[in-house]
Design a protein that fits this description.
The protein folds into two domains: 146 residues, Rieske Iron-sulfur Protein; 185 residues, Naphthalene 1,2-dioxygenase Alpha Subunit, Chain A, domain 1. The chain is 15% helix and 29% strand. The chain contains seven helices and 22 strands. The strands form six sheets. A seven-stranded antiparallel beta sheet has the order 14-20-19-18-17-16-15, covered by helices on one side. It has a four-stranded antiparallel beta sheet with strand order 4-5-6-11, with no helix packed on it. A four-stranded antiparallel beta sheet has the order 7-8-9-10, with no helix packed on it. Strand 8 and strand 9 form a beta hairpin. The protein is globular, with a radius of gyration of 23 Å.
């Protein structure tokens, strides 16, 4: 069982009009149809920092498995979970100093570079094979989370983690939570970027379609280095209950800006009134193509007393659950392969731009080839390529298949 709560219980999803059954042990879905779903070469939130100790933690991201642990200096390491000797799970072993020890034969792999430092069966002076190594991925601890860079880009070329200026600011109160959705991560991001759903999905923020004059005004895109957003003004029915006094308004015009940073990080800034703001950030980590672990942060500049946290979190969970219920029923499960399979309107402008960004990242060769993964023999394992693969040869596991760099539009038309 991995730490992010995905069980090995088989269940069935209907995707592209076909029922797909998840294998009870491997988690692989049969008859997978190609769609843009998961990218390497970005930072992904793996776990809360407080949960990473000198006991390894098993985490699944991008459909692959990893072992996270702290060394003697407190530094967090992330390595590919598959021992390249006989395939045991490193996350179920032990930490020995600055290395992780395989529970099967005691091989020890250094967290810093993944190189095997000890093979007990060879004896004290035995020569360790050069291929005895696992991929080790860069980590950062930020915002109380451990982020892992899952890719092979050198440090200077890596996209940054989004900046959260409210973090640690005494003028803001921050709460966090983590949830697991049976939703493709990119579908979930599109929900955040969608200004038109609020009116119908969230009763506190909309009129459930009862306003005859409802429309989404022209959207002007806000372009940033690693993402796109937009600001929209709309009328709300007013806050309910005690929130009304806290945000000092009712039936007012609300201004909100939502956008994305990279493929899976989103932000939403909502101005409830001239004096009350909420700023939300979500790190959507794809567990696999079918599940998303959401690390959600909400900052508020009102009701700063920590005693208000539980009350605010209850409302937040209600709103998130309203989205989840809709998103888990969306068909097809993935974004359609062709834009002609949807009817797109001006309110979808940010989503359209987000999809264009995905094509850009695909053209760089960062998109995982899930068709190739699905077609691979079941006795074949891969690893997401780490930065060390750019300078070191001779790896036991092949790098995970990627869609070729180049013209993403032409590839999509294949």
């Amino acid at each position: 069982m991995v730490s992010n709560g995905i069980s090995n219980t088989a269940f069935t999803l209907e995707v592209f009009g076909r029922k797909l059954t998840q294998h009870s042990e491997t988690g692989i879905y049969l008859h997978f149809n190609r769609a843009i779903t998961m990218f390497i070469n970005f930072w992904y939130a793996a776990e809360e920092s407080r949960n990473i100790t000198d006991t390894p933690v098993h985490v699944k991201m991008l459909g692959q498995e990893f072992a996270l642990f702290r060394d003697t200096a407190g530094k967090v390491h992330c390595v590919s979970n598959i021992c390249t000797h006989r395939g045991a799970s490193l996350a179920h072993g032990k930490v020995r100093g600055d290395a992780i020890e395989c529970p099967y034969h005691g091989w020890q792999f250094r967290g810093a570079d993944g190189v095997c430092a000890k093979i007990p069966s060879l004896g004290k002076d035995g020569k360790i094979p050069a291929r005895a190594k696992v991929d080790s991925y860069p980590t950062q601890e930020k915002y109380g989370l451990v982020f892992c860079f899952l890719g092979d880009l050198p440090e200077a070329e890596r996209p940054p983690i989004i900046d959260i200026p409210e973090w640690g600011d005494p003028k803001w109160r921050m709460t966090t939570m983590s949830v697991l959705w049976k939703v493709n991560a990119l579908r979930g991001v599109e929900n955040t970027l969608d200004p038109a759903h609020t009116e119908f999905v969230h009763p506190v923020m909309g009129f459930q379609g009862d306003r005859e004059d409802y429309e989404i005004p022209k959207i002007d895109l806000i372009e940033r280095d690693w993402g796109t957003g937009a600001k929209v003004a709309f009328v709300t029915p007013g806050a309910q209950g005690s929130v009304k006094a806290e945000v000092r308004g009712s039936g007012f015009t609300t201004e909100a800006e939502s956008g994305h940073h990279g493929p899976t990080t989103t932000y939403t800034w909502i101005q409830f009134s001239p004096v009350a703001w909420s700023r939300q950030y979500t790190f959507n980590t794809p567990v696999d193509a079918f599940h998303t672990r959401k690390f959600f942060f909400q900052a508020r500049n009102f009701a700063l007393d920590p005693a208000a946290d539980e009350r605010m979190d209850v409302r937040t969970r209600e709103v998130m659950n309203q989205d989840r219920v809709v998103m888990e029923r969306v068909q097809p499960f993935f974004v359609p392969l062709s834009p002609t399979e949807e009817v797109i309107v001006p309110a979808d402008r940010v989503i359209t731009r987000y999809r264009e960004r995905q094509r850009d990242w695909q053209s760089k060769g960062w998109l995982m080839d899930l068709d190739a993964l699905d077609a691979a023999p079941k006795n074949k394992s891969y690893a997401i390529p780490s930065p060390a693969r750019r300078s070191s040869k001779g790896w036991a596991l092949d790098a995970i298949p990627l869609r070729p760099a180049g013209n993403a539009a032409a590839q999509a038309a294949e």
